[in-house]
Amino acid sequence: MRKNREHTVKAAGEITAFPVAPAASAIAASFPDASCGCPAREPGDRAGWSTRLAAVLAVCGVALLFAMVLAAALPVLLRPGLGWPLEWLWQPYQGHFGILPMCLGSLALAAFALCAGWPLALGLCCWLLTEEARAARPLTRLTGGLIRFMTTIPTVVYGFAAVFLLTPLVRTALGGTGMCLLAAGIMLTLLILPTMVLVLEAGLAPRLERLCPWGQALGFSRLDLLGLFVLPKAGRNLAAAAVLGFGRAVGDTLIPLMLAGNATQVPGGLTESLRTLTAHMALVTANEVGGAAYNSLFVAGLILLLVNAGASLALRRLGARSRPRAEVDS
Fold it and tell me: How deeply is 30 buried, as exposed, middle or buried, from its count of CB atoms within 10 A (0-12, 13-18, 19+)?
């Protein structure tokens, strides 16, 4: 009996000891050699280097763009007098090349589109995320697919459709030519709406899904969870959607060019025509090569870059302030 027990123990020891050497060698092979002190090559090293290279190239490209526009705009800005671009009158034949009315036109049109589109995007996103009725699921899926499809429609299609469908309605209802701030603002709202909806959905949906299991177990609906817990902590996502929508509105060219009327004046109402900086740049480059009118375009480009850069920096600052608060609340 004793011999059988010793034989069993010995056999078990041999069986358990057999795979130790291969396993140990496999584990040791996966770690760096302590004798040479060389770090092991991580599988993601190549991906990390490619990501860093792409980031460096992107930063260098943006810096080069700023440098080129600034180098072309500074000589124009440092030469005040007749033809200085920072004035309120654009009359090229009289030597006046002021672009300030176009600056205000861009800001007015972008502000109109943002004020009309951001609440609509937030409401649409909340409806898509919180609709619980089974009968409404096909409608929500159709709406979500339509919003994604709208991002693929070229801008010229929006403008072409508005010329034949929207401007006659505005002309009949409010008078004038129909080419005005209101018509351009409505179409620009439709243009930036899908971008803001998708940004909001990407930021709010994961938080809501994490809260749903325990929240619904406690009796909260999806709408309650979104309104009471998700939205109060989603200031950065809300601001990101607004900044991206504003940048898209300020930088669009075809909608203002086709629908705003292109009058070089400060708009005094929704039915008045205006000209934006982007439309102004398109019109001048089509007719001018060189001269004071052409040089003023570099100042217009610099202003557009500064507006978008300022909006992005404001968003980053808001995000940096919201992180410590989130850590304290957690």
Answer: exposed
